[in-house]
Backbone:
């Protein structure tokens, strides 16, 4: 149980690191997206 | 030579022996000990043989002295005291040993011997109950000699294995004493072979109760002082052959031990036999009852298995500890034990046999200190103060150790010395947290070092004309996306006019609409795909204003880094907080339980 919890946490941290790297690279900023008041209108 | 009585061969192996009693024709044997005369083994690669045995008793304890002969003719002895083993070497007589006078000393006094400090622990008159084989001094059964036992002072030993001095006046107090210096050993250390079979058939004795004439079983008569008749619940003195009946427990008392007397179980790697159990009530909360099972192994000595409403503690006596001062934390073998609670328990019922003169209504006052999963209990008993080192066991461990069919009560809540389930992962989580925050920091640092590409720069002038409300930039190309677009509206004036801004992809007509403010700092529009764009500004107030529009593509923000740090730290914070909550509950739980009972 203890080893599982540590493993899961370790994997979670790796995923978060990966997401950070990708989101930075793609300019996907959750915080700004939320607080900017951005509205996206798809014309098609 | 041959024994003059039974004519069997009787070899005297040690040159130092002054008498040799034939073990074949002597009736009394050390039935409860795994050793016997003729057992052999080795200690630190030195072969040894058991050549003599004396059983000694006082009014409180009994023990065996085993004389051993090493292959290099050195003679030593092993004291087997209720499963505790101490190896002693005789000190060579010197001026210091001859002039050594412990008679002025009292228990607890500190004295120097050969440059080392010792504390006098016990003084007793050991009477020889029987003897077999060789002996260094002439003695007879029934002889009694004063024995002084001292232990190396605590400040001089830190490894938990202090030297022990045994000072024995075998020839009366007028002659110099026989001084031996030793240390406690594990039975396995002597790698003994040719052992006595300790199966129950050879050592179990049936005793007739002097009160009710019912028969009951005693498993280790050599070491036990009291037994309780399982028919009339009288306490019987079994230390002598008279088997006197002492006080009687309440016949109406209903108690059925969950672990049967006589059953064996393997706990933490060692096999123990349940030889007795006592029922105790809390003096302050009469309804709060606990059970203590007395376990014994001839090679590991006694252990206690305490059961307290789903809380199980497996404990043994330790000696290398000072008494605590009040409720100050106690350091023991590198662990800090904090004060948990005090208890005052009265013995109300017992079954089985016991190594001390058990009494009805005997009171045990203890101070408990914990370092989960361990507990130190300091017994305040005046006659024989003891210190117990206990380890928490969960009910499943007890069930599997004794192969119990009945399901044991589970603790209702966190128990005093159960390790918090978060305790061990706390450190690992913190370590992982720190490592990954550092990793994230370097990822972020590397990202923000890549400069954003300027994609547009133009100047706008909005007049107060009502029709001049909305203006657009020239189209500009964004490449290599998606990425974030940073837009800055800068004006030399101090105006704070707001615009509804639209970023329009010309080909798809997709629109990103968001508010902006002149001199309001950089606006980061996240995740904009590649394409041909223009910016349209619609002012909110009819005001004359001039400003510059600067747009860069591939802009970076630290916000995701901080979100990542928060996301990574949340599990770590949860574990830390849960651990703290567990500790707070732990401190309160015993009192709460008592209140409920």
Residues:
């Amino acid at each position: 149980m203890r080893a599982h919890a540590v493993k899961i946490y370790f994997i979670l941290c790796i995923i978060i690191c990966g997401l950070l790297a990708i989101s930075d690279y793609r300019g996907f900023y959750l915080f700004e997206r939320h607080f900017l008041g951005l509205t996206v209108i798809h014309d098609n | 030579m041959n024994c003059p009585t039974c004519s069997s061969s009787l070899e005297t192996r040690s040159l130092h022996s002054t008498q040799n009693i034939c073990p074949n024709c002597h009736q009394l044997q050390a039935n409860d000990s795994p050793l016997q005369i003729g057992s052999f083994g080795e200690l630190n690669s030195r072969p040894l043989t058991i050549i003599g045995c004396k059983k000694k008793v006082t009014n409180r304890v009994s023990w065996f002295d085993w004389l051993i002969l090493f292959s290099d003719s050195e003679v030593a002895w092993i004291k087997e005291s209720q499963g505790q083993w101490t190896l002693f070497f005789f000190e060579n007589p010197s001026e210091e040993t001859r002039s050594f006078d412990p008679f002025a000393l009292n228990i607890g006094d500190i004295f120097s011997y050969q440059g080392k400090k010792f504390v006098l622990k016990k003084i007793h008159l050991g009477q020889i109950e029987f003897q077999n084989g060789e002996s260094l001094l002439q003695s007879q059964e029934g002889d009694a000699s004063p024995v002084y036992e001292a232990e190396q002072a605590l400040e001089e030993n830190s490894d938990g294995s202090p030297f022990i001095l045994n000072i024995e006046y075998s020839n009366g107090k007028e002659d110099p004493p026989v001084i031996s210096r030793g240390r406690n050993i594990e039975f396995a250390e002597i790698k003994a072979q040719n052992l006595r079979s300790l199966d129950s058939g050879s050592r179990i004795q049936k005793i007739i109760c002097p009160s009710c004439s019912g028969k009951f079983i005693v498993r280790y008569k050599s070491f036990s002082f009291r037994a309780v008749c399982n028919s009339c619940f009288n306490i019987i003195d079994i230390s002598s052959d008279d088997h006197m009946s002492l006080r009687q427990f309440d016949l109406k008392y209903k108690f059925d031990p969950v672990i049967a007397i006589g059953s064996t179980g393997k706990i933490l790697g060692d096999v123990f036999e349940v030889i007795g159990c006592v029922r105790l009530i809390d003096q302050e909360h009469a309804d709060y009852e606990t059970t203590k099972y007395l376990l014994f192994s001839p090679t590991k000595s006694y252990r206690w298995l305490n059961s307290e409403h789903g809380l199980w503690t497996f404990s043994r006596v330790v000696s290398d500890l000072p008494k605590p001062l009040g409720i100050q934390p106690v350091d023991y073998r590198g662990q800090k034990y904090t004060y948990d609670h005090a208890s005052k328990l009265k013995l109300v019922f017992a079954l089985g046999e016991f190594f001390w003169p058990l009494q009805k209504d005997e009171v045990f006052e203890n101070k408990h200190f914990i370092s989960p999963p361990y507990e130190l209990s300091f017994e305040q008993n005046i006659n024989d103060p003891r210190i117990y080192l206990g380890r928490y066991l969960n009910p499943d461990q007890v069930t599997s150790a004794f192969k119990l069919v009945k399901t044991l009560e589970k603790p209702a809540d966190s128990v005093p010395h159960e390790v918090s389930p978060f305790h061990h992962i706390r450190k690992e989580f913190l370590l992982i947290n720190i490592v990954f925050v550092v990793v994230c920091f370097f990822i972020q640092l590397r990202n923000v070092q890549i400069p954003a590409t300027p994609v547009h720069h133009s100047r706008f002038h909005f007049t107060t004309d009502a029709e001049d409300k909305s203006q657009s930039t020239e189209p500009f190309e964004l490449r290599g996306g998606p990425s974030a677009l940073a837009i800055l509206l800068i004006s030399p004036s101090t105006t704070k006019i707001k615009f509804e801004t639209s970023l329009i992809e010309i080909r798809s007509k997709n629109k990103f609409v968001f508010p902006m403010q002149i001199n309001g700092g950089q606006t980061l529009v996240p995740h904009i795909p590649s394409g041909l764009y223009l910016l349209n500004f619609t002012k909110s107030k009819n005001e004359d204003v001039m400003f510059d529009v600067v747009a860069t593509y591939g802009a970076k923000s630290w916000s995701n880094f901080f979100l990542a740090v928060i996301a990574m730290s949340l599990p770590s914070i949860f574990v830390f907080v849960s651990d703290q909550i567990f500790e707070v509950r732990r401190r309160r739980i015993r009192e709460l339980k008592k209140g409920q009972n």
